[in-house]
Amino acid sequence: MPKKIIAVDMDQVLADMEVPFVELFKREYEVEFDDAEAYLVDHPEVDLNMTIRELYPYINTYEFVRNLPVIKNAQMVLKELQEDYIVYIATAAMDIPKTFSAKYEWLEEHFPFIHPQQFVFCGNKEIIQADYLIDDSIRQLKRFNGTGLLFSSSLNQKNTEFIRVNNWEDVREYFQSQKQ
């Protein structure tokens, strides 16, 4: 029986954009806080979508993407999944188009066990022909034709349409349950 295919998003699933974004926010707006969620609750005038648009030029850079930290356990779980599945990285690189080389280099450095021929740089992920897509984007999961797993992030907490995985331990457990 052929192996099933898992496509995995990069930003906010493998690469933690939230921590560097919060640091960028603090630096650019000259504010200090320890808890971003508490800060936003205390400052309802902060429009997060507007802030993301304002900071987009900083995010859409080689330096920002190249230095993103890896989300905990992503490497270990993806290595394990490769034993039973074919794994592709499918990143909507068109959302931050100036970062192609940074994303490629980041993936090569942090996920050397995944062949670069299995890196897919795209925009709309409906073109991805896989059995599963692990993504934090509701928009991308709605376009996908297979089984979508919603990787938790601060921007998708209220969504209940998809199977939710909060971290890479949850991803491991989900796929272990699929083998039974």
Rg on CA atoms, Å = 17 Å
* CATH topology tier name of the largest domain: Rossmann fold
Cross-sheet strand order for the largest sheet? 3-2-1-4-5-6
User: What is the CATH homologous superfamily assignment of the largest domain?
Assistant: HAD superfamily/HAD-like
Please tally the β strands and state the result. Answer: 6
Helix/sheet category: alpha/beta
Strand content is: 15-25%
| Poorly predicted runs | none
What is the CATH C-level name of the largest domain?
A: Alpha Beta
Total count of domains: 2
At CATH level 2, the architecture of the largest domain is: 3-Layer(aba) Sandwich
Amino- and carboxy-terminal Cα gap? 15 Å
Described by strand count, sense and barrel closure, the largest sheet is:
6 strands, parallel
Mean pLDDT: 92
Q: Roughly what percent helix? A: 40-55%
Number of helices: 8
What characteristic shape results from the CA principal axes? globular
Q: What is shown here, in short?
A:
By secondary structure, this protein is an alpha/beta fold.
Describe this protein's structure.
The protein is an alpha/beta fold. The protein has 2 domains: 4-16 and 68-179, Rossmann fold (3-Layer(aba) Sandwich), CATH 3.40.50.1000; 18-66, no CATH class. The protein has 8 helices and 6 strands; from the N terminus they run βαααααβαββαββα. It has a 6-stranded parallel β-sheet with strand order 3-2-1-4-5-6. β4, α7 and β5 (147-151) form a beta-alpha-beta unit. α1 crosses α3. It is globular.
